Amino acid sequence: MQKTWNNKAWFMVLPVLVLVAFSAVIPLMTVVNYSVQDTFGNNEFFWAGTEWFTEVLESARFWDALQRNLFFSGVILAIEIPLGIFIALNMPKKGLGVPFCLVFMALPLLIPWNVVGTIWQLLSRADIGLVGYSLARLGIPFNYASDPLHAWITVVVMDVWHWTSLVVLLAYAGLVSIPDSYYQATKIDGASRWAVFRYIQLPKLKRVLLIAVLLRFMDSFMIYTEPFVVTGGGPGSATTFLSIDLVKIAVGQFDLGPAAAMSIIYFLIVLLLSWVFYTVMTSSDAAN
Amino acid sequence: MKTHATAISTAQTDAAQTLRTGTTQAAERRPGTLPLPARRTKAGVAWLVPTLYIVFLMLPIYWLVNMSFKTNTEIMSGVSLFPQTPTLRNYMVIFSDPSWYKGYINSIIYVVLNTIIAVSVALPAAYAFSRYRFLGDKHLFFWLLTNRMAPPAVFALPFFQLYSAFGLIDTHIAVALAHCLFNVPLAVWILEGFMSGVPKEIDETAYIDGYSFPRFFVKIYIPLIASGIGVAAFFCFMFSWVELLIARTLTTTDAKPIAAIMTRTVSASGMDWGVLAAAGVLTIIPGALVIYFVRNYIAKGFALGRV
């Protein structure tokens, strides 16, 4: 659409600007403020320079949490994106099945995150949970509270349960927007199912998949509530992701300086990686 | 050879389909048009995947519902697929104690407030982004989206201090404003997508007809993008309803969300699993109702109006 140049449009953006400035810029400035200062109580602050940043970047704890979190996001993307596309491809395109599928699939997305944690806790416990109990009966002592591998499996399956529907719904929305004439053309050419997917459906899905990958990456990289409820970051620190660690430092230990420095590094990593995903996915588009 | 085989198999499935669905479909299909590839897959297999997936999704929820109707002694005495002695006691605990059911009302108040604020400030902004070019528009749009990338854990502590300074701690409006952090950018993004789909000629015709801008916006434009507003409101509702870290940080008693009150069931006398499950079931219901009402817009909404 041809847009007209009009600087008065700023007035229409102003409410958003004021609101977001209040709820994002001021808190962020507080964080920056803390990250370069030290305090010994009494509300007296001293300039500390980059001390906290060096401390965070040199701590093994931070790098471990970052590594765990990157691995987690990688696993999540590797499972949820292909699975989501696969399910969307097999969903009915019309008829009564459509609203039925959509309503049930969207349901996990609207459950408060700590309830998601609670649900999976109730399901995986060996004494009262359906899955934990069944596995125990089959001779597999499943205990997410003491075995790091079991904790990871629980957290990953929980996230797949919680968020795959987002990918399904995005991919489905992309698929139903492909005109019938495209399929008719492939029919005339005698294209195989795989060719239809590779050359018609996948390119058309690119835009929604970009949104799906970005949203799933951002949210899995910021995950806090669900693993916190189920494992509390344990056993040991096996499922302590960046957000869990950050809240521990900020609220648990009240180390404002390191917490603020870590917040800024964390935020910058999310921004950087989102930018990388965006650039990679859109530049391959331009190359075609 | 391969094409030939495909043609034969297509003809076979076609014949089978006509047999199954009767004559209407065959009559409807004009000669020369071909069926969609979705119909080419065997009907049974195509249904299997979504069915299995929905079973996987519903199993944990079923377990929660099952537990919510059990007594604690039954829960602890072993695993059973159905409540042996069904009880409503867990729900009675919640509905008879104001400190429980008020959590519900609190959640709904701040979620609705947040949805109203986010959508109403996003509307003019999205209009500006979809219709005009102005100084720094692209940077501003990108900056708005970066707020969606801010980890809530980063903001928990500064939010607490900010809202303390304004004396807003433990009020609904504090949570509603704080959730604007991620909901306003999202609402602007979704609405901008929908608005770009409305041709600009409509605006121009309205001005020529003598409509003032506010009157045009309310009388003509908003009805045109009603489904977009519905979708944006749905997303705001969803993300505000499920968020807990910030909501819990900003509230103590008077505005505490139900999801945070649930943690009370952990007490010295042991877990009250039944009440925990019942509270969990009750937090799912509002979401389920909202999905049911917007079910026809969900697919379109997830495409964010512009695939």
Automatic annotation (TrEMBL), chain A:
Q: Does the keyword Ubl conjugation apply?
A: no
Q: How does it sit in the membrane?
A: Multi-pass membrane protein
Kindly provide the name given to this protein in its UniProt entry.
Answer: ABC transporter permease
Q: Give the taxonomic lineage as stored in the record.
A: Bacteria, Pseudomonadati, Pseudomonadota, Alphaproteobacteria, Hyphomicrobiales
Keyword entries, A-Z: Membrane, Transmembrane, Transmembrane helix, Transport
Its GO biological process annotations read: transmembrane transport
Q: Where in the cell is it found?
A: Cell membrane
Membrane-spanning regions, if any? 12-36, 70-89, 96-115, 160-178, 208-225, 259-280
Pfam families assigned: BPD_transp_1 (PF00528)
Q: Which family does it belong to?
A: Belongs to the binding-protein-dependent transport system permease family.
Query: What is the organism of origin for this protein?
Result: Pararhizobium antarcticum
Q: Which residues form the ABC transmembrane type-1 domain?
A: 66-277
The source's domain of life comes to: Bacteria
The record's GO CC annotations read: plasma membrane
User: Quick check: keyword Metal-binding in the entry?
Assistant: no
What PROSITE patterns does the database record attribute to this sequence?
ABC_TM1 (PS50928)
